[in-house]
Amino acid sequence: MSSRHDTSDSLIILGPYPPPYGGVAIFNKNLFEAIRGEHSNTELWTNAELCEEDQHINFLKSGLIGNIKFLLNHAATKTILDSTVSSAEYPNFKSVLVWVILKPFLKFKWIKIIHDGTLPARYQTFGFFQKFLLRLSLRSYDRVLTVNQTLFNWAKHLSPSKLDIHKITSLLPSKDLDIETELPQSIQDTLPTCDKRVCTMGAFINNYGFKQIMNAVENLRNQHDLDIHLVMIAGGFIKDSDYRNDLLRGRDWAHAFTDLPHPQTLQVLKASDVFVRATTEESYGLCKVESILCGTPVLATNTGETRGMSLYDPHDANQLQTQLYKILYEQHNPDLKSFQEIFKREAQQNLQSILSVISINS
Questions:
Q1: Which domains does the chain show, CATH number per domain?
Q2: Pairing with 167, which of 33, 192, 326, 329 sits 20 to 30 Å away (CA)?
Q3: How far is residue 283's CA from residue 170's CA, in Å, rounded to a whole number?
Q4: CB of 236 within 8 A of CB of 20?
Q5: Please, which pLDDT band fits residue 1 given cuts at 50, 70 and 90?
Q6: What's the CA gap between 255 and 232, in Å, rounded?
Q7: What are the b/e assignments for 40-64, b being 16+ CB within 10 Å?
């Protein structure tokens, strides 16, 4: 690694870490693994109580006292790469106040990563006090990284002119992609052999469109007498148990996993014939890109990253069903290999961009 990325001071990566296996948690995991090999003085702090045991991974207790103890005992003079949501996405009065007050005394460098693509729209619904807290945070950040152009434009418009803002993506090199394609026996036992397998990810709430995908698969099975199974991989960060139970009831061809480890998730993707993403809002859509990197075609709505993917209107159930049939039975797919090379190259470039931005001495 070049000297301009040399971080002689310590770096703290702060935010979600698996499990659960959401996009931000995977981003932090991949970033932590990429940096720690070069810089042993990199730590990760997370409020995920079930994360793996590691001397460089530490538990951050949420709340006012937890924030004060963390900052006073561990943050002084360090660079903090912050993917938590309490200062911008969901501004919390106590959290913002503690960070803003202690920052000048502890002299830490605060780099905020904004992952939530819904923030610009939600900001319009914020009350006066929430907007005040967010603007106070923006004045205290040393740098801001946003994961798409819309967030970048919004942050640029809202922030002080002197604030350094950069656009990155959620895509980073991942060791988990270099795995065996055979599924673990525990998962094989849960997934019966079938002619075609459809996979989707998200959570058991309406926003992720599991019901629409379920209906499309069910219609194809009934109308064409097809042996198609659906695998739903859900994060445990939020769920509606009634919604989940209604989807699975009486459908032995539908299978659900919660908080499946990331390497096993990629194995399921490789063993699937198509990955469907039905969200109407997406900051980037890391799972879609990972599917392409696994060699599995993607059918998605026109939001977030869409290169190399087949698209459909989320309000058109017939289009979803028709596109799904074409991918499964007519090989109606883009050339995945060319897009795999594009995304692999961009993952490396994105890592280098982040390393440049977080360079403490820059």
A1: 3-175+345-357 (3.40.50.2000), 177-342 (3.40.50.2000)
A2: 33
A3: 9
A4: yes
A5: very low
A6: 6
A7: eebbbbbbbeebeeeeebeebeeee
Neighbour count for residue 206 (Cβ, 10 Å): 11
Distance CA 306, CA 5 (A): 31
Task: Return the structure tokens found at 103.
Answer: 């920052």
- pTM exceeds 0.70, yes or no: yes
**If you write DSSP's letter for every residue of 257-315 in order, what string do you get?**
EES--HHHHHHHHHT-SEEEE--S--SS-HHHHHHHHTT--EEE-SSS--TT-EE--TT
Mean pLDDT, residues 258-271: 88
Residue 114, C-beta contacts closer than 8 angstroms, at least 6 positions apart: 88, 89, 144, 145, 146, 147, 151, 155
Give 153's contacts (C-beta < 8 A, 6+ positions apart). none
Q: Which of 203-207, 320-324, 340-344 has the lowest mean pLDDT?
A: 203-207
Q: How far is the C-alpha of 270 from the C-alpha of 179, rounded, in Å?
A: 10
Q: Tell me the per-residue pLDDT of 171-194, one tens digit each, with 9 for 90 and over.
A: 999 988 876 656 777 777 888 889
Cβ neighbourhood burial of 81 (10 Å; 0-12, 13-18, 19+): buried
- β-pairing, 79-82 vs 11-14, is parallel
The per-residue pLDDT for range 93-129, each reduced to its tens digit, is 999 999 999 999 999 999 999 999 889 999 999 999 9
